[in-house]
Specification:
Largest sheet: 6 strands, parallel
Helix content: 40-55%
Number of helices: 13
Order of helices and strands: HHHHEHEHEHEEHEHEHEHEHEHEE
CATH topology of the largest domain: Rossmann fold
Radius of gyration: 25 Å
Distance between the termini: 58 Å
Number of domains: 3
Strand order of the largest sheet: 2-1-3-4-5-11
CATH superfamily of the largest domain: Response regulator
Length: 359
């Protein structure tokens, strides 16, 4: 027999009570089976009953016991992560730490985690590690896609194998704003443009420099240029140029030649974490430049503190990777929906506030 929710008040239950499905059913005035269907998102439930149950869950601050649930469910979920090797690019060290933290939290539950590191300078390495991951039939592949064309190939393979895909850090347009954690790269480009505009209010020549260009950088460039197009009073000539830093000697020569050909450049937007390489190459040119770059690498922080870099945009790679794993683990264990798009704040770091961002 169902008991009306009005006949038993929530306040009659102790605050520290561990509520059972039977308790919730009595409070909501529904059957235990109806509560079970709502808690586990299975079967049909009337809108009225669903509202009553969720109201009760909110009032009693009900949280499922994850250990009990994982023991009851014998399935072991496999969450695999595909990301660049931190030994090859230090930008990915915080991301790897974020994954470690998330894995530590969910290790007691029914989840298997595995990381696959690829060389961010080698497209074949990306495909090789992706195929290795997919051969182990994961439930989901969380990946940081550096190579656009190859990422589309991996995405297609995942679809064929019915493997869920989630992205962090770099966005791929085929996803249509689905299962992505990172920054709004277009907007971060606008932020960079705004910073340079405030430093150089008069007409000046601006360089947008890609160092080891990747496809996602174009979104930053589009946002950067859009800012000045919208603000028609700021008529800064903009020169976009790509540099390859694999060979540092050739890179230095290329930097020297570029700035010799463009002596009017007074501001530079570096679209990734490699602003420190540019400044090292510029040492002998004795040019006074305003520089905006990305990411809190040790070398960049030192140059920021020394006044060689004016601003750094913090992309929070550790937070991105951590949330990527947590969202997927909570989806499989607790039935939580995966956020379609989780865009993190765009933090502007200066020499005055960088101390608060150091680990």
């Amino acid at each position: 027999m169902n008991i009306c929710v009005h006949s038993i008040g929530i306040n009659e239950f102790p605050v520290d009570k561990k509520y059972t499905i039977k308790d919730i059913a009595q409070l909501a005035g529904v059957s235990k089976g109806t509560v079970d269907r709502v808690l586990h998102s299975r079967g049909k439930v009337s809108e009225k009953a669903n509202e009553r149950i969720n109201e009760v869950l909110k009032e009693i601050d009900y949280r499922p016991n994850p250990i009990a649930r994982s023991l009851k469910n014998s399935k072991v979920y496999k969450i695999f992560v595909l990301l660049p090797d931190p030994k090859e690019d230090p930008y990915w060290i915080p991301a790897n730490e974020g994954i470690k933290e998330a894995v530590k939290e969910f290790n007691p539950f029914g989840v298997r985690f595995e990381k696959f590191f690829y060389n961010p300078k080698d497209r074949a390495s990306f495909l090789e590690k992706a195929n290795m991951a997919l051969q182990a039939t994961p439930d989901v592949l969380l990946m940081a896609p550096v190579f656009h064309k190859e990422s589309l190939e991996v995405f297609e393979n995942c679809q064929n194998k019915k493997v869920l895909v989630a992205l962090f850090n770099n966005y791929i347009d085929v996803f249509n704003n689905k299962n992505f954690i990172g920054q709004d790269l277009h907007q971060s480009g606008r932020v960079a443009a705004s910073l340079i505009d405030k430093m150089q209010p008069q007409k000046c020549t601006i360089a947008i420099l890609h160092i080891n260009e990747e496809a996602h950088m174009r979104q930053k460039v589009n946002g950067f240029k859009e800012y000045f197009e919208d603000k028609k009073s700021s008529l800064h000539p903009i020169i976009t140029y790509s540099l390859n830093a694999e060979n540092l000697s050739l890179f230095k020569n290329d930097v020297f030649d570029f700035f010799e050909k463009h002596p009017k450049i007074s501001s530079v937007f570096v679209t990734n974490s490699k602003a420190h390489l540019l400044i090292e190459a510029l040492k002998d040119l004795n040019r006074d430049l305003s520089i905006v770059g990305y990411d809190l690498l040790k070398e960049n922080i030192t140059l920021l503190e020394n006044g060689k870099i004016d601003f750094l945009i913090h992309q929070k790679p550790k937070r991105q990777a951590y949330l990527g794993v947590v969202n997927l683990a909570e989806h499989f264990l607790f039935g939580k929906p995966i956020p379609a798009q989780n865009l993190l704040p765009i933090d502007v770091i200066t020499s005055e506030n960088v101390i608060y961002y150091k680990d």
